[in-house]
Amino acid sequence: MVSLRLAAASAVIGLALVACGDASNNTAGQWHGVGAGPSGNGQPSNSNPTPSSTNSKTDGGAPPATDSGAPQSGSFSVMVGSSSADVELRATTLPIVVTVAPTNFTGSVALTVTGLPAGVTATFDKPTVSVSGNTGASANLTLTTMSTTAVGPISAMITATAGSATQSSAITLNVKPILTLNIPMNVDAMKGTPGNPSKNVFGTFPIMITAPANIAATPIQVKIYNADSAGHCIHASNPNQGFPHDPVTNGVCNALTQKGTFDGQARAINAVGTYTFYLHDQGDLTEGQIKIQ
Ligand SMILES: [Cu+2]
Fold it and tell me: Quick one: pLDDT band at residue 153, thresholds 50, 70, 90?
């Protein structure tokens, strides 16, 4: 959708496409250094170049006399596809589309995120995008939390920078009190021995979580997904804290969690503490632990 719109904009204003071609195709040879100035970098010829004032759309009538190193002329804005995103603990958001829209501006625009707490990482599939004239470009941003990331909203800024010009757009990351555990494929081949269970199957042992201010009101939901081909049963032993065993009859699980499904037993841990679990169907040979403090 974006590329169609941008292509149409290019056609309307008749930009020379020789230099940049498809803005979504960021091969190195198509990028332009902003600091290189208007001459000799393949900037499309512009009948209305503005003078050196930054981000002005006014037609000054005269081309810039010298290369100031700043963005040559025109301006750009940065937009985010959605101003908020949800993420679980120890998880990554869906891709967030960040679009740089230029107005008579050609150059490379660097994308960064500021304001994130330690432990939340931002990754752009393209940390620098190339825009040309009125043809914009987009990148996908993902934000990744740790198990220890505090639950709640995080305000951050997505910033686009070209030379001395910057534009920002706000985003809110909602860190949900949810932890998803994964029973991996072929988990039976990963099990330990009696008295020495495998402890690396579910990630770092223990999985550390920062307790919400009022964990009784904001319990940590634990979801368990079975990616293995065999069914499994979760052993847990803290029902009063919201971390119960799967239902059993005479010591046998009523219903194993099957491949490609989430464990049907709801778990929402409502108190700080240490919560150990293992695959009941194996015995305590594949163990995980959640520590909330
Ligand atoms: Cu059990």
Answer: very high
pLDDT digits (tens, 9 = 90+) for 163-213: 999 999 999 999 999 999 999 999 999 999 999 999 999 999 999 999 999
Asked whether 160 and 76 are in contact (CB, 8 A), the reply is: yes
Q: How far is the CA of 250 from the centre of ligand 1 (A)?
A: 11
CATH number of the domain within which 239 lies = 2.60.40
Span from the CA of 277 to the centroid of ligand 1 (angstroms): 9
Cα of 280 from ligand 1 centre, angstroms: 4
Q: Is 107 exposed, middle or buried (0-12, 13-18, 19+ CB in 10 A)?
A: buried
In this structure, the answer to whether residues 99 and 241 fall within a common structural domain is no
- Count the alpha carbons within 13 Å of 198 in the hemisphere toward its beta carbon: 17
Tell how far the Cα of 246 is from the centroid of ligand 1, in angstroms. Answer: 8
Q: How far is the CA of 231 from the centre of ligand 1 (A)?
A: 14
Enclosing domain of residue 152: 2-175
> How many whole angstroms from 3 Cα to the centroid of ligand 1?
54
Task: Give the domain-ending residue among 154, 175, 196.
Answer: 175
pTM of the model: 0.74
